[in-house]
Design a protein that fits this description.
Layout: E1 3-5, H1 8-17, E2 24-26, H2 28-39, H3 42-49, H4 53-66, H5 71-95, H6 99-107, H7 109-139, H8 145-162, H9 165-175, H10 181-188, H11 193-201, H12 209-222, H13 225-238, H14 245-275, H15 285-296, H16 298-331, H17 345-362, H18 369-395, H19 398-401, H20 408-434
Antiparallel strand pairs: 1-2
Helix pairs in contact: 1-9, 3-13, 3-14, 3-16, 4-12, 4-14, 5-11, 5-12, 5-13, 5-14, 5-18, 6-7, 6-16, 7-8, 7-16, 7-17, 7-18, 8-16, 8-17, 10-14, 10-16, 12-20, 13-16, 15-16, 16-17, 18-20
């Protein structure tokens, strides 16, 4: 017997053009798929948005330069990311407020403005790089960036501004499907799975500045400030009730695990091909995709490009939303995906402005993307310790969280995460600025 559920695409289209939403008849199998998608949410979206064009370039560079030797760091980073994401989700559910709003209320407008300014600069730079990633991915299929980037920008703007939160969230979840291209690409690369297994549990460390830099960059690109900012605000907008807290926390943790498994497969794919054949210097995800062709075939190149496209589309959509959440919450303005400009002018204008600027800059010929990403790394490196400190302090505050505040082992894990990532971020900033 068929089950009647709303069609995602029909709902998006009706939200855009204003027509009534009509149910469609789906088979039980398709209904179960849509029901499963409904269980997924902000945790999966936020964690996978961190695997953006810059992240894929970093993981590709790690695999090309050091093979499987950095896989053990992903195991440790996964624990840290899972704790951070879980606490962001918990605060959103318990307080009903985004992180920037809580910082403003608990610590004052000065800290809020500082975080807002840094987020705006960093997120704009990353957003530009992700539109560059969209253009680079489709350029591998012969589509020029001057065509692909404006079309992608328009589509993303329509999803965010003209759709509803629910329809946008489901589309963002579908954007995660291309990430499965990376495990397939890794299998096509025929890695030595025994060596992969050893690298996951046995740490490899080189006493060189190059290794230190790629290690810190791997940690920094896996846990970025906009991920927590988006996650907490999205949980609030989703309207999750406190009785559903456990499910939301599990979704946040599973999203972190999935995202880092994908990162591991990127390292495995490039380690088994580029590192094994002496191609050690990779500066972009598109370059990594092209370099795979001679060693793993055109299908591996195409899969890598598909993953890059999906990752860039997801991040290019999430970054304007996260930035707009932060600015609106910091200054006390109305916010919400699907709100019209008359209802939330600041929220909509920030999203529109970021998409326009990022798309325009991304199609400029000869854009110094690497220099841009280096500058963004510095800003993110300064911002991450601040964000993590506030998450830790707010999550352990009885005044904010009541009986849901953290303590014991979870408190210690978060404190260690703040200390370790703050140290790594500080070292990254020093190394980047001084050129050591």
């Amino acid at each position: 017997m068929a089950v009647r559920v709303p069609s995602v695409m029909r709902r998006v289209r009706s939200a855009i053009v204003g027509r009534p939403r009509l149910p469609v008849r789906l088979s039980p199998r398709r209904a179960r798929i849509f029901a499963f998608v409904g269980l997924l949410g902000p945790g999966l979206i936020a964690a996978n948005a961190g695997n953006d064009a810059g992240g894929i370039a970093t993981y590709s560079a790690a695999g090309a330069k050091y093979g499987y030797q950095l896989l053990w760091t992903l195991v440790l980073i996964t624990f840290s990311l899972a704790v951070v994401q879980m606490l962001a989700a918990r605060m959103g559910v318990v307080t009903g407020k985004g992180l920037a709003e809580l910082i403003r209320e608990e610590y004052g407008i000065r800290w809020s403005v500082l975080a807002t300014s840094a987020v705006l600069v960093a997120n704009l730079g990353i957003c530009i790089s992700d539109f560059v990633g969209i253009g680079a991915a489709l350029a591998l299929a012969g589509v020029p960036p001057q065509v692909s980037v404006p079309l992608a920008a328009l589509g993303i703007w329509l999803i965010i501004v003209r759709g509803s939160y629910r329809s946008a969230e489901r589309i963002f979840i579908w954007f995660t499907i291309p990430f499965f291209a990376y495990p397939i690409a890794a299998v096509l690369a025929h890695p030595h799975w025994g060596a992969v297994g050893r690298s996951l549990v046995v740490p490899h460390v080189h006493l060189s500045s190059a290794f230190l830099l790629i290690l810190i960059a791997t940690a920094g690109t896996t846990i970025t400030p906009y991920m927590q900012l988006y996650l907490q605000s999205a949980v609030v907008e989703r309207g999750v009730r406190e009785e559903d807290l456990g499910r939301e926390e599990r979704e946040a943790v599973s999203g972190a695990v999935f995202a880092n498994i994908i990162a591991g497969f990127i390292i495995i794919a490039t380690g088994a091909t580029l590192f094994a054949h002496g191609v050690h210097n990779i500066s972009s995800a598109a370059q990594a995709a092209r370099a795979l062709n001679p060693f793993a075939g055109q299908y591996a190149e195409a899969l890598f490009a598909i993953g890059l496209l999906g990752a860039s589309l997801l991040a290019a959509a999430i970054l304007p939303i996260a930035t707009s959440y932060v600015i609106s919450e910091s200054l006390g303005y109305e916010k919400g995906i699907g709100r019209r400009r008359q209802e939330a002018p600041v929220f909509v204008n920030v999203i529109t402005g970021m998409i326009l600027i990022s798309a325009f800059v991304a199609i400029i010929p000869g854009l110094p993307v690497i220099s841009l990403l280096v500058a963004v790394q510095v800003v993110n490196g300064l911002l991450l310790p601040i964000n993590l400190f506030f998450i830790w302090r707010l999550a352990r505050s009885r005044n904010v969280m009541g009986e849901r505040r953290i303590g014991g082992v979870l408190d210690i894990l978060m404190a260690l995460t703040v200390l370790l990532l703050s140290t790594l971020s500080t070292v990254l900033v020093v190394v980047t600025v001084t050129g050591l």
